[in-house]
Design a protein that fits this description.
The protein is α+β, with helices and mostly antiparallel strands. 27% of the residues lie in helices and 22% in strands. Helix 7 packs parallel to helix 9. The longest helix has 19 residues. It is globular and about 75 Å long. This is S41 family peptidase.
Amino acid sequence: MGSKLKSFGLISFGVVAGVAASLQYSAIAQKINAMPLPLEKLSEFSEIFGMIKSDYVEPVEDDKLLTEAINGMVSALDPHSAYLDKKSFKELREGTEGKFVGLGIEVGMEDGYVKVVSPIEDSPASRAGIQPSDLITRIDGVPIKGLSIDDAVKKMRGEPNTKITLTIARKTEDKPIVVTLTRELIKQHSVKGKVVEPGYAWLRISQFQEPTLDDMVKKINVLYAQDPSLKGLVLDLRNDPGGVLPGAIGVSAAFLPKDVAVVSTNGQVEDSRRTYFAKKEFYLGRAGSDPLAKLPAAVKNVPMVVLINTGSASASEIVAGALQDYRRATILGTQSYGKGSVQTVHQITDDTAIKLTTARYYTPLGRAIQAKGIQPDLRVEETANGDGFNALRSREADLHKHLSNDKEAESDAAAVDELEEEKRLIELAKKSVPVDFGSKDDFQLRQALNHLKGLPVKVTPLKTAKLDNAGEEAAKIATPKNKSATSKQ
């Protein structure tokens, strides 16, 4: 098997509800060491395998037993390691290209039902009139209450040109709405932006995919064409689950000094101990001209605020952490998810692979994000009255068997506060509606603009946890002259 093994590096958070996961296909030279096999345990496995084959109530295929054994072995390691069968591997590869076959809706869960967060522009869902906050109660006439979000999404995925019927509950309608849609190839654009008011622009990255860097460069040029004298830029990474590592490095490099360290990784394998710099070879991944060379020079110095929340994970945390460490931007919002581990995809056959956690990643100052996340410089909740749905989301540290943070002991100090606030937050969430990011009702965006203008910001103080004091150390590496100090991390 060793001769067939092929490795791919990735940093991803996982499947976004209704949107394919992201994958980086940059080859990693991986040395496979011959390890002594635990013969006693292998003998025990063989005995149990034979017992199932001979004594189980009905015949079981060898392939099913061995596949499930592999799946169990890998998934028992941590929440992000997994065996990828043919379908899962195909979906993972599709996600990196920003396209998938489905209906074109980003979804979440509410009261056991699938809730529409937003339809993707020019998709079957948007053309059928599906709206944000719609609840999907049935798929092809079968009730879905109680299904996991992943299982519900799998039911909505399928082959191109196949039909699916959704039953929808809408607050403004007395009766259920039944719509039939045809699945098609969905191309998702991960970058959007606009000039929100004279002198100030909003740039949103919803996921880091292969086209993200090129799309961001195009969007920034459009923004500067609309307003050449921008005085402030808000980079919105809220609910961005991560994606490809080169995309995160490229986005960071767009705003940071030339050639500085962006992120480092450390793991058991030698190739996993690396530092990634704001250089073309680390973010381009292909031949051709550097897309960042097309950016206006002013983007390097424009005052910035980066928006994050509990849904900001992995690659988005790399960007936020790097810009925070270099004091390039003010981070505003709520604590990020804390997905600070690297997954490498080892292709086993043409159609299957395993996704294995191989390293932790660190900000330029050496802060481990795993199970901790990025703490904002200015803690501002989702709404003026509280954090709404965001406050009830789980984080990496809540996952069973999550990888620990190797830089400091994990603390449950905030748990006391969560217990005291649980009832209030649940009631608040019931009254909340999803925030339309970038709209006039986007409270966090308004606060970001206030900060850029030097106006008061409605900050929410933490009761039990202390914010990271990255600022005191950031000045030590604020110029490229100190890049050698970070390359050893």
